[in-house]
């Protein structure tokens, strides 16, 4: 075994520290199968984490019921006392002390305005006899004056972002449980939207609906829940004008980024620097001309022009990420695969499932 020396000369007075050469880190490029396995592992761990949280909430609910039955308290009171973050917002209650009031009064005088460890010793040595000589009326008056001063004194509670998120999350959980219970008891349907009102809290918008109106906004009103929550958040933070402008700009930039990625990947796949995605004439001008097809397109996003799809930023970001990591990509077709796809396309044209948009003369 060879020991590595870090000093040039241990006996020399000019000895200096010598660092060994840094090891080069290998740039590991994961294959498509490795990336898929990694995503599967991350998804599995996420499910485990969610299951652990659900189990904890179930244990908390069971503990709440046990405390309610044992101590004859209401469920609301026990839940409020158990939730994390609520205790931070409680103000401290303390009874006014006569000696503290006397020390405060003496410290108000300019000649007694001192600081440090010697303050208490000075008060005891010089004013102990005066404190013991206070009458009952003087004691009551001093306590009253000190209590009024404490009430007018400005105090603040340091509330961290983590405690705010805990408070919001657990309060919404309680509200959702109450709405579900109300639905079971009376059949009432409810929709709940929650968005942050400032940029201090890194909270994503929350949308909740009972079973009867779960798809009401999407199917009947034609409004995407995440889109609505994003606009509501922008309105709360910047106002109506700032909300519309900020949301529209973000959506427009994300769509442009996805278009660039699609065109760049198509050019890399075909070797044609002038190749571009054409949504209207996709089969004839892209599939048939270059014998390629898009593979791995998300099911929740319609395969059409990006200007016509949902403007929800999370969906667009997810689509952009899938193009980046190769989940969604251009796939070259063999002659057999293209012939099969061509026959399927002709059958859809005959059945009227799709419409041929080529210009006819």
Approximate shape: elongated
Number of helical segments with 4 or more residues:
11
- Cα separation of the termini: 85 Å
Please describe the biggest sheet, giving its number of strands, its sense, and whether it closes into a barrel: 2 strands, antiparallel
SSE order, one letter for each helix or strand: HHHHHHEEHHHEHEH
How much of the residues is beta strand, in percent? Answer: under 5%
Please give the share of residues in helix: 55-70%
- Please provide the count of β strands: 4
Assembly context of the chains: single chain
Uncertain residue ranges: 1-13, 84-91
Mean pLDDT: 77
Strand order of the largest sheet: 1-2
The radius of gyration computed from the alpha-carbon positions, rounded to a whole number of angstroms, is 35 Å
Please identify the structural class as seen in this structure. Answer: mainly alpha
Structure notes:
It contains 11 helices and 4 strands; from the N terminus they run ααααααββαααβαβα. The chain is elongated and about 110 Å long. The strands form 2 sheets. It has a two-stranded antiparallel sheet with strand order 1-2. Strands 3-4 form a two-stranded antiparallel ribbon. 57% of the residues lie in helices and 4% in strands. α3 crosses α5. The protein starts with 31 loop residues before the first helix and ends in a 10-residue tail after the last helix. The longest helix has 46 residues.
């Amino acid at each position: 075994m060879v020991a590595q020396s870090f000093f040039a000369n241990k006996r020399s007075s000019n000895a200096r520290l010598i660092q060994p050469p840094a090891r080069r880190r290998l740039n590991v490029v994961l294959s498509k199968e490795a990336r898929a396995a990694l995503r599967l592992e991350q998804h599995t761990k996420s499910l485990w984490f969610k299951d652990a949280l659900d189990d904890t909430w179930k244990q908390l609910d069971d503990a709440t019921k046990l405390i309610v039955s044992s101590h004859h308290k209401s469920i609301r009171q026990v839940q409020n006392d158990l939730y994390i973050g609520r205790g931070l917002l409680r103000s401290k209650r303390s009874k006014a002390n006569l000696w503290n009031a006397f020390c405060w009064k003496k410290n108000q005088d300019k000649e007694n305005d001192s600081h440090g460890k010697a303050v208490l010793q000075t008060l005891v040595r010089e004013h102990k006899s005066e404190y013991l000589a206070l009458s009952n009326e003087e004691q009551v008056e001093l306590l009253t004056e000190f209590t009024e001063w404490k009430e007018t004194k400005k105090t603040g509670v340091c509330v961290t972002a983590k405690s705010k998120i805990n408070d919001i999350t657990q309060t919404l959980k309680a509200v959702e449980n109450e709405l579900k219970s109300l639905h079971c008891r009376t059949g009432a349907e409810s929709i709940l939207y929650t968005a942050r009102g400032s940029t201090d809290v890194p909270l994503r918008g929350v949308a909740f609906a009972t079973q009867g109106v779960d798809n009401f906004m999407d199917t009947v009103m034609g409004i995407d829940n995440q889109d609505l929550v994003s606009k509501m958040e922008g309105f709360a933070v910047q106002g109506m004008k700032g909300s519309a402008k900020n949301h529209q700009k973000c959506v427009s930039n994300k769509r442009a980024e996805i278009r660039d990625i699609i065109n760049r990947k198509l050019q890399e796949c075909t070797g044609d620097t002038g190749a571009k995605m054409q949504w209207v004439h996709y089969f004839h001008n892209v599939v048939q001309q270059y014998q390629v097809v898009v593979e791995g397109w998300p099911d929740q996003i319609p395969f059409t022009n990006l200007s016509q799809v949902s403007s929800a930023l999370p969906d667009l970001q997810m689509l952009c990420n899938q193009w980046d990591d190769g989940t969604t990509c251009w796939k070259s077709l063999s002659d057999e695969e293209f012939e099969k796809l061509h026959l399927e396309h002709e059958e859809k044209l005959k059945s009227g499932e799709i419409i041929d948009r080529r210009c006819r003369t």
